[in-house]
Amino acid sequence: MKFISSIAARLIISSLATGAMPCVIAAQEPAAPAEDLKQELHQTRQMLQEQAELLRRMGLEMERQGKEIEELRQQLSATPAASTPPFNNSATGDAVRLQNAVQTLRAPAGLPVEQAVPSKGETAISEPSELFFRIGAATFTPSGWVDLTTYYRSNDVGSGLGTNFQSIPYSNTVPGGQSETRMTAQASRFAIRVDEAVGKTRAYGYAEADFNGYLPGNAYVSTNSNSLRMRVYYLNLARGKWEILGGQGWSLLTPTRKALSPFLEDLFNTFHLDTNYQAGLTYARQAQFRLVYHLANHWAAGLSVENPEQFSGSAATFPTLFSNSETDVNSTTGSGGSTATPNRHPDLIVKTTFDRTLNGLYWHVGAAGLLTSARVYTPASVTKGNAASDAREGGGIAGNIFLELFKGFHLLGLGYWSDGGGRYIGGMGPGFVVLQTGSATSPFATALIHSGSGIGGFEWKINRHTTISSYYSTAYFQRRFALDPGNKTATYAGYGFVGSANTNNRTVHEASFASTTTLWQSPKNGALQAIMQSSYVTRAPWYVALDQPENAHTFMEFVNLRYILP
């Protein structure tokens, strides 16, 4: 416009000079002198320069902000997996972990819940729980669910909601000839998480409980007095690439879906309603001190010092002169109870995991190692001389994979082999037995038991509301025994010998199928789910007496309706 005005002004001046357009000129304002035109052009040039300078500064500011955003993005990408909000039920890669970290800054974290949104691969919920509250700088987020489960077993296992896989009754026995049907709310759960940041250190505490504790003898007669129990209770601190966890949590040996996160959603414990999960699953919930280092965004390594327990179980047979108070035999009263069991040193577990996204599909690989020990003592009254002790160091190795083959479909597998680590296979078999070779005055010997397990299967989110899963598993326990010199009759001590009880299992197998359907879901109001599980379990002992069944088996069906708090 300034340029057009300048041309018009020059035309008017030229007309005045030549005498043309007298009537038009008479009707216009007096023309601006040439000096005014120069001033106007100067002002226009100055204004354009100022606008250019402003645009340059804005560009620099946007560049600076872009660098800050990128630094924040890199920092959040390096955030340890444990700090991802439990609203995340995804098992995708780095992009989702970044989204979760951003969500952590926007809203208080909720609680990790098994099956709360059974959608491995679904993005994080964008709205926070409506239940959180703040005290000072700390954020408190309660959560949990109300649960009603009906279960049926073709044989009366009698172990409650969690199946004792190792003691399935034989069909020719009184419990084995009966079926069982029961309804229970024991799996209802409540928990609370507390988050706070102290400088660059992120801290959270987490406590979780359900009602699967010990029951009184008349628990189901009138009032169904289910007992409260502590599941996990720990504090986690994360700063930079380091994490420290102390308290009771899931063992580092438990297979994971993502990194070394302690959250339930990032662990593998199936989608089952059975509170003992799957036969052959390696896990424990116990006191521990854990140190984790994130070598890279996709690579983590950890060391955990965990509560030990010398475990032989009730199926093992001990020498006549041996006091079984030196090992846990699952006794709930008197000597032999777990609190009376001596232990040499804590169990040590190391683990490393590798997580990667390939073509938008999430892959996870993990490997772990275990160091455990057992020791028995022989008093002088047995040796008729000096007292003696025998100690053994045991160990184990474990590995697991969690591979997304196509969107929403995950193939999984895990394996475990140990020498003395049987208690980590759900307590289904002995870690060691006690032998006395030679004479009745010989010292007792600690004999470690080889044991192993494996699980293979898949999990498939077939649509936004329904996830199905299927697994097949097996567990194995070695036989080991010797003659008992303290008994006048020729008998054996140990596990799996000829004539041993049919509880001396060689193998336990389970095939299972489960589905979880979200009937209704709202980030603010929670979710309503229908969950079903079908399983077939069989166990085979080392010794089968004449005219007795070769194995014991049962079919199980679980049906559940669960309301999950937001």
Summarize the helices and strands and which ones pair or pack:
Blueprint: H1 2-18, H2 22-27, H3 34-77, H4 94-106, E1 133-135, E2 138-153, E3 180-184, E4 189-198, E5 201-210, E6 229-239, E7 242-250, E8 285-296, E9 299-306, E10 347-358, E11 361-378, H5 380-383, E12 388-406, E13 409-419, E14 432-435, E15 445-448, E16 450-461, E17 466-477, E18 480-483, E19 492-495, E20 505-522, E21 526-541, E22 552-564
Antiparallel strand pairs: 1-2, 2-3, 2-4, 2-22, 4-5, 5-6, 6-7, 7-8, 8-9, 9-10, 10-11, 11-12, 12-13, 13-16, 14-15, 16-17, 17-20, 18-19, 20-21, 21-22
Could you walk me through the main structural features you see in this protein, from its secondary elements to its overall organization?
With 566 residues, this protein is mainly beta. It folds into two domains: 2-69; 78-564, Beta Barrel (Porin), CATH 2.40.160. It has five helices and 22 strands. The strands form three sheets. Strands 2-4-5-6-7-8-9-10-11-12-13-16-17-20-21-22 form a 16-stranded antiparallel barrel. A two-stranded antiparallel ribbon has the order 14-15. Strands 18-19 form a two-stranded antiparallel sheet. A hairpin with a 2-residue loop joins strand 4 and strand 5.
